[in-house]
Write a structure and sequence with these properties.
By secondary structure, the protein is α+β, with helices and mostly antiparallel strands. The chain has three helices and eight strands, in the order H-E-E-E-E-E-H-E-E-H-E. It has a single domain, classed as Electron Transport, Fmn-binding Protein, Chain A (Pnp Oxidase, Chain A). Strand 4 and strand 5 form a beta hairpin. It starts with a helix and ends with a strand. Strands 1, 2, 3, 4, 5, 6, 7 and 8 form an eight-stranded mixed sheet that branches. The longest helix is centred in the N-terminal third of the chain and has 15 residues.
Length: 147
């Protein structure tokens, strides 16, 4: 009986939250709508950001982001994930950085130079030792732009 109560209470808490909780996806993000910044350097020290996809039925996740020469990139290691599929179908997204909400358009990146620079930025920022190209391993890279 006690386990059932804990399960019901936990489920209620998860449903009451709007954004994701760690690796558990969420719905519509809450925060302060913020104009697109001229300089994204403030994100260099931010490890995790929140990304909302699918504007008609908001779906949000916690992701890593890199700033490369004032351009923002989000990587999906699995293009079959719900959020990556959502961006392929509708590129309108909301990015949350420390509670600031930025409307953006996600564009799948395929040019070699952008891919190389963004992958290198991920390796440095997140201290990833692997030199594997996640894009060639079934992933995708998205450039977030002002809508």
């Amino acid at each position: 009986m006690r386990n059932a109560l804990v399960l019901v209470f936990s489920t209620g808490l998860l449903c009451a939250c709007s954004g994701p909780m760690g690796p558990i996806p969420g719905g519509e993000l809450e925060g302060t709508p913020t104009p697109w910044p001229e300089d994204w350097a403030f994100t260099d020290a931010v490890e995790n950001v929140l990304l909302q996809t699918n504007p008609m039925d908001p779906y949000s996740v916690t992701v890593w982001m890199v700033n490369v020469e004032n351009e923002i990139y989000i990587a999906a290691s699995d293009t079959d994930s719900a959020w990556a599929q959502n961006m392929f179908q509708n590129p309108s997204v909301v990015l949350s950085v420390n509670g600031m909400l930025f409307n953006a358009t996600a564009r799948n990146v395929s040019d070699h130079d952008s891919l190389s620079r963004a992958i290198q930025a991920y390796l440095v920022k997140y201290e990833i030792e692997s030199q594997e190209d996640f894009v060639q391993e079934g992933g995708a890279l998205f450039h977030l732009q002002r809508p």
